[in-house]
Amino acid sequence: MNRPLALLAALGLLLSTAIPAGVAAAEDSQPATPEAAAAPTELSPEAKKGNPYPLTTCPVSGEPLGAMGDPVVIEYEGREIRFCCPSCEAPFKEDPTSFLIKINEQLIEQQQPTYPLETCVVSGEKLGGMGEPFDYVHDNRLVRFCCRACVAEFQSDPAQYFEQIDQAVIEAQRADYPLATCVVSGETLGDHGEPVDYVLGTQLIRLCCPACVAELEKNPAKYLKQPRPEEEGTEATEPAEGAETMEGSAGA
User: Fold this and answer.
1) What is the C-alpha to C-alpha distance for residues 182 and 205, in angstroms, rounded to an integer?
2) Are 45 and 217 contacting, i.e. CB atoms less than 8 angstroms apart?
3) Higher per-residue confidence, 42 vs 176
4) If we measure between CA atoms, which residue out of 208, 195, 201 comes closest to residue 224?
């Protein structure tokens, strides 16, 4: 083969191997830093994933959600977070860990009083039987364990364990549920068939029909603030922050 043809053949071989290598590198590439991997994604309420954000105040400003227009909804590591206004998103992005610790403290304070189980959802051991229960927040929901060792088993299938917690919430709260009407539509519960039992955090909310679930999830704070019959004329207040927690748990 003469020299020009040999050069062309070598060039063709080089191109045929370089292009697939470049494609593979792009497919296998990962973000260079944890911050890049965990960049918050802004969502519309309709596009939310996971469990709704059940707090009624902004984690940055402390203002009531809805006081400054529709809340800003983002997803951070698969978890929904809500702010009172667009300007509060930047401080969260600068230091998400500090704000998540604050959020988790408030979620534990909010959900612990109505947590329905006296035993560990994983081991079945009595809470407190092995020392102080380990409070853990997963996807905006409190789970109480007998010890840290049970967290790994829970993480293998959270949906299975949340199903048990949900059923326990419904059984504990349905008989004494204080409202006869749907918090979303105002319709009498039972007028559209069997009411829908919806668990938000560790609180039961009864809805007149499945169509009201989407409306509730668009703005949970709005419906959590609605007064119960015995609290007519009052508004729900946000609990104080609890003990120091690590990200995702308390009692670290």
Assistant:
1) 8
2) yes
3) 176
4) 201
